[in-house]
Amino acid sequence: MGYRLGVDVGGTFTDLLLFDTATGAFWRHKTPSTPHDSSEGILNGVTAICANAGVAANQIDYFLHGTTVATNAVLEGKGAKVGLVTTEGYRDIMQIARSFVPGGLAAWIIWPKPQPLAALENTVTVKGRMNAEGKEVRPLDEADVRTQLTYLKGQGVEAITVSLINAYASGAHEARIGKIAAEVLPDIPVSLSHEVLPEMQEYERTLTTVANASVRPVVGKYVSNLRNRLAKEGMTGKLSLLRSDGGLMSAAKAEEHPVSILMSGPAGGVTGAIWVGRNAGIKNILTLDVGGTSTDVALIENLEPRRQRTTEVGHLSVRASALDVKTVGAGGGSIAYVPELTRALRVGPQSAGAVPGPVAYGKGGVAPTVTDANVVLGYLPENLLGGTFKLDRAGAKAAVQTIADALGIDLMAAARGIIDIVNENMFGALRMISVQQGYAPRDFALMGFGGAGPLHVNAVAKLMGSWPAISPVSPGVLCALGDATTRMRTETARSWSRLAQDTKPEDLVAVLAEMAEQVTGELLSDGVPADEITTAFEVDVRYAGQAFEVPLTISADLLAAEGIAGILGRFDEEHKRLFTFNMDTPHEIVNLRAVALGRALDLPSPPIEKGNGDPSAAKLRDHTLWMDGREHAAVIYDRALLKAGDIIPGPAIVCEMDSTTLIESDCVGTVDHVGNILINLA
Amino acid sequence: MPATIVQTNTTPFKKVAIDPVTLDIMENALRNARVEMDATLVRTAMSPGIREQGDAFPLIADHTGKMIVGQFGSFIGGFLDNYEGTLEDGDMIFLSDPYSVGGAVSHSNDWLVLLPVFKDGRLIAYTSMFGHQSDIGGKVVGSMPINARSIFEEGVRIPPVKIWKKGEYNDDLMKLVMHQTRKPDWCAADLNALIASCRVAARRVVEMAERFGDDVYVSATQELLARNHRAMKTLLSQAVSEEPVSFEDYICDDGMGFGPYRIKCTMRREGEVVILDFDGTDPQSIASINFYLNENMFKMFFGIYMIMVFDPQILFNDGFYDLIDVRIPEGSLLKPKFPAALSGRTHALGRIFDILGGLLGQKTPEFLNAAGFSSSPHLFYSGNDQRPGKGNAWFQLFQIGFGGIPGRPLGDGPDGHSLWPGFTNVPNEFLERYFPMIIERYETEPDSGGAGLHRGGNGIHMTYRFLSAGTISIHDDRWFVPPWGVNGGEPGKRARKILEKADGTQIIIGNKVEDIDVQVDDQLHFITWGGGGWGDALERDPALVAKEITQGLVTPEGARDYGVVVDASGVVDAAATDKLRADMRASRGELLLFNSGPGIEVLRANCLAETGLPAPVQPVWQHLEAAE
After folding, report:
1. What is the ipTM of this complex?
2. Cβ(A45)–Cβ(A57) under 8 Å?
3. Which of A547, A680, B363, B384 is deepest in the core (most CB within 10 A)?
């Protein structure tokens, strides 16, 4: 057995978590991120954590990494210059997109239209046509293809994407263009839509392929730089990246298919929550990852996170599997304001960010933020991070007072109002992934992490009726923990688009088997031993004519035993749960997916010392905070000194290096055997 | 006689004070519930019009029927005044007849459900949603006959009836209704979806009342209305002058050879009330382009436009209604007399938004947008699929297209995007898979956006190749009167429809045509209008014009409208450009606030030469008095 190192690079901090797979012991470290070259911060962290643990770099078998490098390349428009080759008559495919203007009536007046990811001047069309059955209507005009590719060469494109109409039905023309491109532009990487995403819907397939091509060089550079620097430090372990869907993929695979890691960042927290839940014996969890500018929420049912078929990055919706993570613009840095005309209290989505940050941080911020309200109310004690960083409570009070004055209420009511509204925004996001998907929140626990999650988790659990509210061990580095403890995963998808009644089970089985072979092969080539690989299938079903498919997980055994009727029965059940009704309409099988998974690791959390239920040994000092419309006496505890079984009556605050847990006045926290704080109503 | 509301608990709601934080929380929760209605609908509906394009509109109203969230405003007050019957727990109202509800829905294709929400025996809210049905029977496929002379030709008309009565489903009623349509499967699914959406919202309302208390919930809805009233009062007093301003625009034709039809609106403020008067609007048409405009709906449009133009932070609801007085002459295009045909109302509905923009921005050119909302182009294609192996199966397609978005103070108008909220295009691969057609072209039409400092968005040039004989119908507008430019910007180019036969013959067909036969391998070029330009085109950066040539959005010829001399590869001749711009500046007159082209008479004179179609004939209204 050896060591696994999880590394999560955030905007402000790089979090590391070193895991001893033999004992379950772990070490954590936080170091400032180095945005000009993330590998610098990573190496600082690696050096520190190895020294701390007394482990040599070459003892680390696995380097597991969640990164926002691909996300940022898209959001900041720093991807490669992509040349797009599409079918004659479709040059504006990215320009017209889906013709959709976000917002309500008249919102077009104020909508800034984003520029296409492949510039229109670098988009060319070629003659040749397939129909929806994959049959050739007109042959590919190869001379035309060469002319167009030569033009793109002259444009200085850095990557080529080929996405033709109906390529999901036949990729023959795309493949031929790929070959010609290799001759005309020998050093330029080429992405073909039928390989990246063999699914119907030309815009989504093209966008996904373009996005992939656009971030490939950036991710490639990032990975090779990181690999070299780690090698110099003597680290020879396997480098894997966290996918948007919560699985791991080899760095080499990620370089080829970076569209799979666009939402690598938020996925880390969710996989971390699964690890915590497994060790705490809690299987149904809603996650609440509260950062400086936004909050991510997700739903875990029976230790499996809900996934979705699209990855949302900024304004783009890319077809790649991702955890179903919803984001709201509500975080510690969210700014509170009172618009003059309505005199309403609004919080966010504008954020003070890391710079200038909340007023209380004393870095020049002047606008009142959620963090300032937490400081005013006494939820965030003035000494953070072990006393090295003092909060400016007077400044926070002055800022929140401006809100109080505008609303004509007192300071504390205004501060609590800010907290209530931001909690409500988080509640709204949690409802979207639970109630709106047919799940009852009372069947779930709520886990708060990220810098400010444990500060809000108790209040949001009250709104949801989701108990217990959990402040996990190491809430500040849960992403890195997730990186370290999840498993390898890969998948492939295909359009089927046939009525269930016209589908022969043996045809379906044959295609699924072929797909299973493909994904198994991918993991094998990534070095996963054959006996550790398991496969699973997903089938998207809908009533013929609907636009929305319900994904159903099936196994080959189930298909053999129950046939297609078995799938349809499960669809009807799920449709009823989601939408309250069923129909007599025929079913359509829309898409097929095969997933291959590496071995699930059994990585236990080390138990902490058992106490006698009395947390007073961990008490730091007495404190006063404002809650339920009045002042309360409260106690501040040091999390590192808490013992298993300790019972902490609210109101109380539990501090640790990088996070603060708030237990409200009518609640009580219990420390479990591994150190999680489980909060319930008293 | 007004409706009788039966409540088993008649205790009135108590007005309680609401703190601002609770109020904001409830507003937010109501907005989320509305979003959830949309999501439920889109996921479960089946007709492409709703599921792919989102042609449906939700609302949540308070216990008196005033809209708290939504975007088309509430008709419920008017409905209650006229509904002769009871409304009780377990009831759900279903309707589609515009004349029964004062135009709350404006053609019979829009099916509406209204759910009174009861909690503990008291009526606490209403939820409602309507959506466009792809076919409700009648004389043509799609149920929107251009040449209808009365609403009786436009398919099934449903007066307000109870689809659910005290919890019991009216099966016979629904059998009768579904028997009238060519697509009972789509209608059943879409109606299910509308009902499911209303029920979801009702559940959310009850949950909120449980969480905060019934009195708090109801008091909060009243305070939300009052808050909007206060905000709009301030905004109106600042933004609307007591001096009247007028604006007029035209519907090109009625599909029967007559046109254009004028719509005119005059706005002025009297004290705190804004008066919007459509005096001067032409009388109703004998055909189906009439638009029965509900006064409250127009108040909402007006309010939303005010908010978007002047202060997008305000959230809108019905609270400001008594600050607006809408006057529409009886018997006019916008308030036709029963039984006038209404199915083709989409052109006037779109044009209303152009008119609003022109009215509101007139005194504040920095906020003024050009024209381009204009219409909502429809294509119908139906028949029996005669391709081998298709079993002669019946198919019918109803598709909504898009023009160009106008030039805006913010910048260029996006090309080929939707001005209607929530609408998307249908993926062409979807069309090719499920209908006998190949989409040979789906591109923007170069130069169609009006020239300006901020260019109007280009329209779309979509080419359908039909793979089975069938019939098509087209509803579009802006083919005769162009979308106007503003602040010196040029008008956008007009819409065109060309049928190209297999032998290459090109036939210009009209923009409102019914039942045209098409053969295998015929190609239809469906070209929509471009948005008007914003600001002086001669001020546009020549480098940007050149770039748009390399992007295929503008041609070298079109670049001359910007005074830019540039070749096809995007190389600008700077000296020639300077000279051309100087010449143009010297020879042109004063820049116009509104540029709607050369005027109706010149357009008429040049119509055949420019559009390939005969000019519409000035309508005469013998059997009707002129609208007053």
Report:
1. 0.92
2. no
3. A547
The number of CA neighbours under 13 Å toward the Cβ of B353 is 29
User: Which of B316, B442, B468 should be substituted to probe chain A, the one whose Cβ sees the most A Cβ atoms within 10 Å?
Assistant: B442
Task: Give yes or no for a contact between A18 and A3, defined as CB atoms under 8 angstroms apart.
Answer: yes
Contacts of B227 in chain A (CB under 8 A): 342-344
Which two structure tokens, joined as six digits, stand for A173? 């023309």
Q: How far apart are CA A400 and CA B85, in angstroms?
A: 53
- By the 10 Å C-beta count (0-12 exposed, 13-18 middle, 19+ buried), B601 is classed as exposed
Tokens representing residue A659 in the block: 């996070």
B599 at A interface, C-beta within 8 A: no
CB contact under 8 A, B20 and A407: yes
Q: Tens digits of per-residue pLDDT, B438-466?
A: 999 999 999 999 999 999 999 999 999 99
Q: How many CB atoms lie within 10 A of CB B312?
A: 13
- Whether residue A356 has a cis bond before it, omega within 30° of 0: yes
Quote the CA–CA distance of B99 and B107 in Å, as a whole number.
Answer: 9
For residue A90, which residues of chain B lie inside 8 Å, CB to CB?
441-443
| pLDDT tens, position by position, A430-481 | 988 888 777 889 999 999 998 899 999 999 999 999 999 999 998 888 888 8
**3-class DSSP state for residue B381?**
strand
For helices A411-433 and A453-464, what crossing angle results, to 10°?
70
Residue A558 exposed, middle or buried by CB count within 10 Å (0-12, 13-18, 19+): middle
Residues of A in contact with B414 (CB under 8 A): 101, 108, 111, 113
- Tell me the residue length of chain A: 682
- Of the candidates B71, B432, B440, the beta carbon closest to that of A132 is on B432
**Measured between alpha carbons, how far is residue A675 from residues A176, A609, A645 in Å?**
59, 9, 9
- Token pair of B623, please? 């059997």
Give the single-character DSSP code of B291: -
What tokens were used for A54?
Answer: 């007394």
Using CA atoms, how far apart are residues A1 and A81, in angstroms rounded to an integer? 44
